[in-house]
Amino acid sequence: MDVGDVDQLVAAELRCFPEDPWTGDAFSSILSLPAFHGVVLEEAGRLIGYLVAWEIIDEGELLNIAILPEERGRGLGRGLLKNWLKRLREQRFRAVFLDVRDDNQPAIALYESFGFEVVGKRKGYYSNGEDALEMMLALGDG
Ligand SMILES: CC(C)(COP(=O)(O)OP(=O)(O)OC[C@H]1O[C@@H](n2cnc3c(N)ncnc32)[C@H](O)[C@@H]1OP(=O)(O)O)[C@@H](O)C(=O)NCCC(=O)NCCS
């Protein structure tokens, strides 16, 4: 992921997270930070999915993962997450955290299939007042 992806990322955000999309400024301002990790998935030059995360010391935090609506159900989301977790394990990270809307069943099912567990609930976390589930995956001692 780099600055050249920002326009397509913003368009994808509007489709994947219409209630709370990230702006171009939001992407641009964090892309170059050392702890930032971003991956885009392209098909024929078109961005069809992405993953954005923090990697801080020995903890990963998944900020966002999305696949364009018409490309879902093909294993792409699973592939993005699997590759990132592999990278973290190889670098001996200890744990991964994420927040997810408590009614986002597809995402929760995806995370649970990798072994993520709910470790907390953040009341009214989202701008529309919805609660977030905090999930964690322990990666072991490295
Ligand atoms: C969550 C998301 C990234 C999954 O991407 P995807 O490419 O469609 O998912 P995959 O095809 O790789 O499926 C992986 C697993 O996710 C779960 N899943 C995916 N779609 C699902 C659905 N509609 N209902 C229930 N579980 C679902 C399943 O566990 C699935 O595994 P399985 O195929 O073995 O049953 C996608 O639905 C998306 O972009 N959603 C909108 C953005 C979003 O909410 N992101 C999460 C923010 S926290």
Please render the helix and strand layout as text.
Layout: H1 6-16, H2 24-31, E1 36-43, E2 46-56, E3 59-67, H3 76-90, E4 95-101, H4 105-113, E5 117-122, E6 132-138
Parallel strand pairs: 3-4
Antiparallel strand pairs: 1-2, 2-3, 4-6, 5-6
Residues 16, 65-67, 72-78, 100, 104-107, 109-110, 113 line the site of coenzyme A (COA).
Observed structural traits:
binds coenzyme A, Aminopeptidase, about 140 residues, alpha+beta
Biggest beta sheet attributes: 6 strands, mixed
Compute the gyration radius: what is it? 15 Å
The top level CATH class name: Alpha Beta
Outline: globular
Structural class: alpha+beta
Question: End-to-end distance, in Å?
Answer: 26 Å
Kindly report the average pLDDT value: 96
Architecture overview:
The chain is an alpha+beta fold and 142 residues long. The protein has a single domain (3-138), classed as Aminopeptidase (3-Layer(aba) Sandwich). Helix content is 30%, strand content 34%. The chain has four helices and six strands; from the N terminus they run H-H-E-E-E-H-E-H-E-E. A hairpin with a 2-residue loop joins strand 2 (46-56) and strand 3. It is globular. It starts with 5 loop residues before the first helix and ends with a strand.
